[in-house]
Design goal:
It is a single chain. The chain has 2 helices and no strands. With 111 residues, it is mostly helical. The protein has one domain.
Length: 111
């Protein structure tokens, strides 16, 4: 009987540790979104205007792509942390259920 109670107590402590150690989503990305927009230049319609506008288009596309990638990585991090948290909670519940079943069997044998 004493062993079954000790197993139950150890399982409860382990379950609390598992639940406390479950990962949680950070909620904020490690880096800030880029907000700088590259200016377009006008030089009277010559070739420099076209080059400046092409460079601004490319730079703005890079900023937009970087922001989209950062948002996707943040969403993936949150989804992954949520899945691991479910696993930790499930393992904690299984530990407690196994210990309660063990205690129940022990009490049943004693009576």
């Amino acid at each position: 009987m004493a062993v079954a109670v000790l197993v139950l107590v150890a399982s409860l402590v382990s379950a609390v540790v598992l639940i406390a150690a479950a990962p949680s989503p950070s909620g904020s990305p490690d880096a800030d979104l880029l907000s700088q927009e590259i200016d377009y230049g006008f030089y009277g319609g010559d070739a420099y205007t076209g080059i400046q506008n092409a460079a601004a288009d490319t730079g703005n596309a890079v900023v937009a792509g970087g922001n989209a990638t950062l948002e996707l990585l943040t969403e993936l991090d949150e989804a992954s942390a949520e899945r691991w948290a479910h696993l930790y909670r499930g393992l904690a519940a299984m530990l407690v259920l196994a210990a309660v079943a063990n205690l129940g069997r022990t009490l049943q044998r004693r009576s």
